[in-house]
């Protein structure tokens, strides 16, 4: 007769550096997993004790000193309980730091595993901090031989094969795997491959929540030895998810459980943006946000995201019209603000711009008007938004998109002002798609905002197309350049006009100095401006 073995997957939203708070969450989940679910094993994410990624906080003596007491508290939570706890933490030994997983049972630490494969690409730089482990660890939990792994270990075949050779019946892998488009499908395909290679079932426990530019999407899952998904937790939600296994001799077979469906592309991206904004604002202690609402598509989408993330009561929208602002922009901004129920104010900037121009008149005498005068308008708006932020404590949300950031179609110290930029990694093409998606859930963005030709409205009859190629041309060029590292020649071969390609590539390189001063924003692509785009400002490369 088969025995039952129960694993609780703790999909947690922790705060980097908040070791006492994270430890309290862990201990609370241990009690719930034991008392409510009678779990044999509860599994917490990678570096759950300190949060992921801790970056240079790992070098802080104060953080190191808090790890030991936290582990003691977690260990003590198992003293009078039949449950076993697996939790990720930074392990300090002499001058080395390891990305480790501790196994506690009966008030004792019964095993310890050190991550073997340290990712050092894209947004990951673990080789800066950690020393790799060098051996497999298999521990017996209520009669089941559990092989331990941490995140990147299961992206390569070696560690899994070592666990199988060491006699594991089940692989349990803890993760801090951030979101990007299509990531869950990729993760599952990799883990299914590991299961088929080793002939072992696998538990995958991922964290959830926003951490600066990164968002962790959860999606914790269980796989049978043939790679079949037998349980999948929801994306972008925390909680305990319970997996049962039938154990008969050396055979450990997962019992079919709840399998959440995978969200569509636009749904997952929108959810990531909402979670990223929510956690950035809440974890940093801001009472709310303020947004410059222009009547255009970018600020409209940003406002919808902010309200979905924080609630209407925490969002203030400000329209700052000038002589070039179209009447329909004013009407559409007010319409959206009313639909979403946010505090909406109108602050005309005509007098501010006039005084600024008068102050500069003598210095600018005999010089023709150019983008300088346009940027003054944007900077007046930025001044007002930052003043509101200073006075109320609300953080300014910047509304720029990835296409604009790439080519510098934004004003430094103007519309680039802000503490966080939700759609910073969304191309203009994607912005339109997300606006349509959001309206499919409830009509909050006026249709005219979506269908109008985009304009910065800084000059008479201005259109984005006056200075940029159409976004259906620009965005594929940017994707090829950023996501694929294509050369100009590579892009031209795809059928794009050589002059346009050279123009765009040159503009992207030239505007690196702006991006270095831009607010952080949610990363949703395989390569965003920020953590995984590191180009020199001063460069002779052409």
- Report low-confidence residues grouped into runs of 5 or more: none
Q: What best-fitting shape do the alpha-carbon axes yield?
A: elongated
Number of domains: 2
Instruction: Estimate the strand proportion.
Output: 15-25%
Q: What's the architecture of the largest domain, going by CATH?
A: 4-Layer Sandwich
**Could you describe the largest sheet, including whether it forms a barrel?**
7 strands, mixed
Give the spatial strand order of the biggest sheet.
5-4-3-2-1-14-15
Description of the molecule:
- This protein is of the alpha/beta class and 542 residues long.
- The chain has 2 domains: 3-263, Nitrilase/N-carbamoyl-D-aminoacid amidohydrolase (4-Layer Sandwich), CATH 3.60.110; 267-468 and 511-516, 3-Layer(aba) Sandwich (Rossmann fold), CATH 3.40.50.620.
- Helices cover 37% and strands 19% of the residues.
- It contains 16 helices and 19 strands.
- The strands form 4 sheets. A 7-stranded mixed beta sheet has the order 5-4-3-2-1-14-15, with helices on one face. The protein has a 6-stranded mixed beta sheet with strand order 6-7-8-9-12-13, with helices on one face.
- Helix 5 (265-283) crosses helix 6 (297-310), helix 5 (265-283) packs across helix 11 and helix 8 (350-360) crosses helix 9 (371-392).
- The chain is elongated and about 85 Å long.
- The protein starts with a strand and ends in a 26-residue tail after the last helix.
- The model has no long low-confidence stretch (mean pLDDT 93).
């Amino acid at each position: 007769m088969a025995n039952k073995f129960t694993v609780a997957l703790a999909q947690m939203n922790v705060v980097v550096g908040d070791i006492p708070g994270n430890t309290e969450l862990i201990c609370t989940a241990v009690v719930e997993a034991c008392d409510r679910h009678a779990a044999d094993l509860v599994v917490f994410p990678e570096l759950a004790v300190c949060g992921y990624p801790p970056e240079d906080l790992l070098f802080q003596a104060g953080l190191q000193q808090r790890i030991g007491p936290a582990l003691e508290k977690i260990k003590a939570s198992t003293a009078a309980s039949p449950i076993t706890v697996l939790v990720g933490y930074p392990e300090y030994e002499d001058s080395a730091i390891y990305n480790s997983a501790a196994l506690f049972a009966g008030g004792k630490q019964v095993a310890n595993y050190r991550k073997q494969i340290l990712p050092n690409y894209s947004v990951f730089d673990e080789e800066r901090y950690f020393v790799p482990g060098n051996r497999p660890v298999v521990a017996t939990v209520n009669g089941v031989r559990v092989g331990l792994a941490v995140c990147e270990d299961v992206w390569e075949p070696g560690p899994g094969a070592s666990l199988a050779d060491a006699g594991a019946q089940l692989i349990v892998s803890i993760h801090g795997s951030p979101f990007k488009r299509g990531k869950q499908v990729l993760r599952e395909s990799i883990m299914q491959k590991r299961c088929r290679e080793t002939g072992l079932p696998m538990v995958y426990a991922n964290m959830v929540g926003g951490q600066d530019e990164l968002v962790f999407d959860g999606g914790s899952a269980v796989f049978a030895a043939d790679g079949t998904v037998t349980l999948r937790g929801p994306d972008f939600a925390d909680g305990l998810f319970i997996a049962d296994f039938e154990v008969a001799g050396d055979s450990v077979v997962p019992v079919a459980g709840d399998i959440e469906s995978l969200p569509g592309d636009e749904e997952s991206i929108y959810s990531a943006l909402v979670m990223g904004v929510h956690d950035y604002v809440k974890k940093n202690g801001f009472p709310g946000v303020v947004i410059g609402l222009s009547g255009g598509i970018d600020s409209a989408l940003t406002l919808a995201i902010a309200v979905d993330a924080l609630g209407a009561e925490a969002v203030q929208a400000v329209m700052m019209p000038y002589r070039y602002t179209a009447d329909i922009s004013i009407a559409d901004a007010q319409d959206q603000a009313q639909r979403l129920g946010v505090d909406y104010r109108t602050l005309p900037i005509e007098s501010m711009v006039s005084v600024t121009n008068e102050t500069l008149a003598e210095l600018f005498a005999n010089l023709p008007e150019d983008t300088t005068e346009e940027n003054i308008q944007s900077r007046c708006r930025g001044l007002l938004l930052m003043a509101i932020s200073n006075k109320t404590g609300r953080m300014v949300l910047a509304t720029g998109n990835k296409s604009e950031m790439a080519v510098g179609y934004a004003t430094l110290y103007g519309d680039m002002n802000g503490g966080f930029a939700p759609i910073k990694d969304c191309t203009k093409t994607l912005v339109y798609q997300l606006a349509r998606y959001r309206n499919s859930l409830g009509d909050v963005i006026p249709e005219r905002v979506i269908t109008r030709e985009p304009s910065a409205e800084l000059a008479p009859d201005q259109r984005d197309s006056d200075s940029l190629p159409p976004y259906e041309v620009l965005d594929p060029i940017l994707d090829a350049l950023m996501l694929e590292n294509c050369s100009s020649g590579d892009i031209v071969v795809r059928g794009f006009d050589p002059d346009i390609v050279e123009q765009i590539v040159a503009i992207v390189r030239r505007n690196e100095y702006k991006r270095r001063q831009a607010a952080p924003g949610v990363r949703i692509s395989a390569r965003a401006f920020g953590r995984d785009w590191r180009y020199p400002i001063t460069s002779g490369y052409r």
